[in-house]
């Protein structure tokens, strides 16, 4: 807004008409006192001030405006009809004016100057606004930085107190803090402890983690500085995320050597026990079968012999599972993969299962001619496990769906759906874990809970992915997908 100050209404009217014609917003005052009062209530982009007015003249008004903190930056153009000599104009500038126009007014010159000063005012106002925003942003950043530093200090204090080897790093991956335990395994703060030659390269894993911006969890062996005493540690690195951005990485090396040794001794025990049990069990099975041939078999004795063989076969299956899990843990489970037709393996397996479960309907949606690179015996083991579990956990249903198809990604899909008790949602991510059983209370939940774990390990060796979907009380669907073998 522009303020026109003149004691003559006709002058105000003419100036106002010119300015409003060019879309300027105009206010007016007929004296110096009124002009001063208005400047205290309203912000003006420009003041056009008449020099000769009764009472307080233009020079006095200009001096008062320039001396006020709120109004000193408002540009002033003086108007005068009589005093045009150099000394008079100089006094006007010294009073606070930035330009001078004499009467009679040239409208073109007036508009040119008004437009110039108005534009400068708008630019100055934008500049001030930008400066205020920058100041506010700077203050916010200082405050945020102080908070981050405070949090980092608190985090460093926590990491310094924990028993693990601990460190933090910048978002770019530069280590910026290590606790005292770090130096037991590395002489330098920015250098990771050296790992066992047979273990993964921690520096490579670190770079891959930074590129993926994902947490890292890795088991490896590290040795104390100057020794070759390697101990297993779990390296776990997690991001600290604020406003969807990683602001820091926090990592720990946790000594798990004792746990690993316990697991190793347990696996050794399972392996030895399984082998030792296998020999007498084979003998028992052979003697029972021989007994059936050498004695006079009655209906009662045959019933007892059949029941004995069923229990022996169950025990044999458990021992085989223990042997498999021992081989998996020691990397000795053989997987000789060869091209084969999945449909042939599935058909022979279903024929065998139909004899084992004569009362169960195994519905196959279609036979597939998909060729895969696989181990037929191990693939059969997975199919048997999926279907046996379906029968076991659907005791009141005699219908099992067996599903095969080729996915849009050109992969083989195999699934087994039952209509039994189902699995609770919180247990879905645990069903393929070692020794996990869906229900310990269910009478049908027999076994060690390692069948699905073995299946998951077998499928991993086949470059396959497996999964499960279930609605508690309405059955489950176990499935896997594996790559097709292209025809040569």
Summarize the structure.
The chain has 488 residues and is an alpha/beta fold. It has helices spanning 9-21, 32-41, 58-66, 86-95, 107-161, 202-212, 257-294, 299-329, 342-356, 376-392, 451-461, and strands spanning 2-5, 26-29, 46-50, 76-80, 99-102, 165-169, 175-178, 216-223, 230-242, 245-255, 338-341, 361-364, 371-374, 399-406, 411-417, 465-470, 476-483.
List the helices and strands and how they pair.
Elements: E1 2-5, H1 9-21, E2 26-29, H2 32-41, E3 46-50, H3 58-66, E4 76-80, H4 86-95, E5 99-102, H5 107-161, E6 165-169, E7 175-178, H6 202-212, E8 216-223, E9 230-242, E10 245-255, H7 257-294, H8 299-329, E11 338-341, H9 342-356, E12 361-364, E13 371-374, H10 376-392, E14 399-406, E15 411-417, H11 451-461, E16 465-470, E17 476-483
Parallel strand pairs: 1-2, 1-3, 3-4, 4-5, 12-14
Antiparallel strand pairs: 6-7, 6-10, 8-9, 9-10, 11-13, 14-15, 15-17, 16-17
Helix pairs in contact: 2-3, 3-4, 7-8, 8-11, 9-10, 10-11
Structural features:
488 residues; alpha/beta; 5-stranded parallel sheet; 5-stranded antiparallel sheet; 17 strands; elongated
Describe the structure.
With 488 residues, this protein is an alpha/beta fold. 45% of the residues lie in helices and 21% in strands. It contains eleven helices and 17 strands. The strands form four sheets. It has a five-stranded parallel sheet, sandwiched between helices. Helix 2 (32-41) packs parallel to helix 3 (58-66). The longest helix is centred in the first third of the chain and has 55 residues, at 107-161. Mean pLDDT is 83; it is low at 440-445.
